[in-house]
Design brief:
- A hairpin with a 2-residue loop joins strand 3 and strand 4.
- Helix content is 37%, strand content 32%.
- The chain has a domain at 34-125: Translation Initiation Factor IF3 (2-Layer Sandwich), CATH 3.30.110.20.
- Helix 2 (44-56) packs across helix 3 (72-86).
- By secondary structure, the protein is α+β, with helices and mostly antiparallel strands.
């Protein structure tokens, strides 16, 4: 069976479709000021780059760094590098830290796995240089 898609042939016919797409995209950008990075097996630089891309390209004002189990220390390292080196010119502060436990099934047995969620608040105003020597 062959299906056909109606493609507008003139700009006047395409304009309503373009306006709908732009309206959806702009409302999505306003609503999604949070950016989530889940830390896992990849190298540390991948997660640092992901946070920087979220802030610079997607204009995220809150970045959530999540990790489970043995990757919790890597998540803390990512946050510290972001705060002290990667986004030095922006004001980055830790808004909240949530810790918890998830119960996962492993080989038919329940396992407790620790979790952490670190929320960073980012504003574009530069840090004050008064605390540096």
């Amino acid at each position: 069976m062959v299906s056909y898609v109606m493609v507008p042939t003139t700009l006047a016919a395409a304009l309503p479709m373009i306006k709908r797409i732009v309206k959806k995209w702009s409302s999505w950008r306003r609503a999604s000021r949070r950016y989530v990075v889940k830390v896992g097996r990849k190298p540390l630089s991948v997660y640092i780059r992901a946070v920087v891309v979220g802030v610079r390209r997607f204009k995220a004002r809150e970045v959530v760094v999540q990790a489970r189990g043995s990757y919790i220390s890597k998540a803390v390292d990512v946050v510290e590098i972001i705060r002290n080196k990667a986004l030095k010119r922006m004001h980055v502060e830790v808004k909240s830290i949530k810790i918890g436990t998830e119960i996962l099934e492993y080989n038919g047995k329940p396992r407790n796995v620790s979790t952490i969620e670190i929320v960073l608040s980012i504003s574009s105003s530069s840090r004050s240089g008064g605390d540096r020597l």
